[in-house]
Amino acid sequence: INEVSFHFVPAQHWTRRFLFDMNTSHWGGWIIDNETTMETIYFCGDSGYFQGFKEIGERFLIDIALMPIGAYEPEWFMKVSHVSPEEAVQAYLDLNATHFIPMHYGAFALADETPREAITRLRNNWNLRMLPWEQLHVLFLGQTFIYSNPTNDKQINEKIETLHV
Length: 165
Prior knowledge:
Oligomer: single chain
Number of helices: 5
CATH class: Alpha Beta
Distance between the termini: 34 Å
CATH superfamily: Ribonuclease Z/Hydroxyacylglutathione hydrolase-like
Structural class: alpha/beta
CATH topology: Metallo-beta-lactamase, Chain A
Shape: globular
């Protein structure tokens, strides 16, 4: 575990564990940083859109951002605590992450929107911003995403080449 660090980072949401303890504990996301493989994952958790995404992006070099795209309707009520698909794309850009994996949609009916609507809005906004499709990874329930860090691959290949010289 020495090479893996977990950093608790801010999010914009509310907390409640019991009936009378509203906002008495912290709410946040996680940066999981593997120094050996030089891979960094950001798990947003629940959050509304806020300036903290830019600050997190300035502090960490994020390879993969797991961003929520569901539970945003009705927006007048949910906006403070849950990003819309469009806000999730903006947060991904603020984070300056390489890959985007949408989450927090599709498994349960959490709000007024449909799972299809969340993905459609995400893809439409991705297309509108002309972002590279190879960096968006929409997974079906239970699917595994295998990431290979190109920087790490290059270093491994250089080591192999050095051994064969």
